[in-house]
Design a protein that fits this description.
The complex is a heterodimer of chains A (112) and B (114). Chain A is mostly beta strands. Chain A contains no helices and twelve strands. In chain A, the strands form three sheets. In chain A, strands 2, 5, 6, 10, 11 and 12 form a six-stranded mixed sheet that branches. Chain A has a four-stranded antiparallel sheet with strand order 3-9-8-7, with no helix packed on it. Chain A has a two-stranded antiparallel sheet with strand order 1-4. The mean pLDDT of chain A is 93. Chain B has 114 residues and is mainly beta. Classes of the chains: A mainly beta (112), B mainly beta (114). At the A-B interface, strand 5, strand 6 and strand 10 of A face strand 4, strand 5 and strand 10 of B.
Chain lengths: 112, 114
């Protein structure tokens, strides 16, 4: 079956540090890949997506590249801000599947 | 304008009660979903409807029954609530069931069963 594995958190960084949150997946088809963010007390918001191999999704300074050869979709940001503190979820939706499969989430804490 | 809205935002109730959570989307989407987020933040699909037709029904107790009166609404009714039902329930919608369509989530309903 499909699965998504994310690095365990929490990840604690100082403001302006470089961020990487690792995400790897297994899928039987040709999935689309997503990163969602959940700010404290709020619902999930789509951060970025990629629908095929070598696509790069980007939004608000965050980037992730769909790497089929390594089955990865790592999230990166060059300079984090305190306002980026949240839980980040990697997810996939496989061919023919009707729902998202989520990773366990990674909590990011950015300190001033 | 809120794209996907849920009511109530918080729900505290006792074991054995029956409760409903409502969801509405104003995006004109055809597909709606219910997800459950447990205390460890793990998210799992429960149900999905496409054009009012049930297309996903994961392994969920029969006490949970979704109802979609029209494309814009998907409600979740829970009978005989148990302690283990305590969680945050998220509604979502997408343009269609295809894997390329992103899902838009509501703010969640935190259910606490005492």
């Amino acid at each position: 079956g499909d699965s998504v594995t994310q690095m365990e958190g929490p990840v604690t960084l100082s403001e302006e540090a470089f961020l990487t949150i690792n995400c790897t997946y297994t899928a039987t088809g040709y999935p689309s890949l997503f990163w969602y963010v959940q700010y404290p007390g709020e619902g999930l918001q789509l951060l970025l997506k990629a629908t095929k191999a070598d696509d790069k999704g980007s939004n608000k300074g965050f980037e992730a590249t769909y790497r089929k050869e390594t089955t990865s979709f790592h999230l990166e940001k060059g300079s984090v801000q305190v306002s980026d503190s949240a839980v980040y979820f990697c997810a996939l939706k496989d061919t023919g599947r009707r729902a998202l499969t989520f990773g366990s989430g990674t909590r990011l804490q950015v300190q001033p | 304008d809120t794209a996907v809205s849920q009511t109530p935002k918080y729900l505290v109730t006792q074991m054995g009660n029956d409760k409903s959570i409502k969801c509405e989307q104003n995006l004109g989407h055809d597909t709606m979903y219910w997800y459950k987020q447990d205390s460890k933040k793990f998210l799992k699909i429960m149900f999905s409807y496409n054009n009012k037709e049930l297309i996903i029904n994961e392994t969920v107790p029969n006490r949970f029954s979704p109802k979609s009166p029209d494309k814009a609404h998907l409600n979740l009714h829970i009978n005989s609530l148990e302690l283990g039902d305590s969680a945050v329930y998220f509604c979502a919608s997408s343009q269609g069931p295809s894997e390329t369509y992103e899902q838009y989530f509501g703010p969640g309903t935190r259910l606490t069963v005492t």
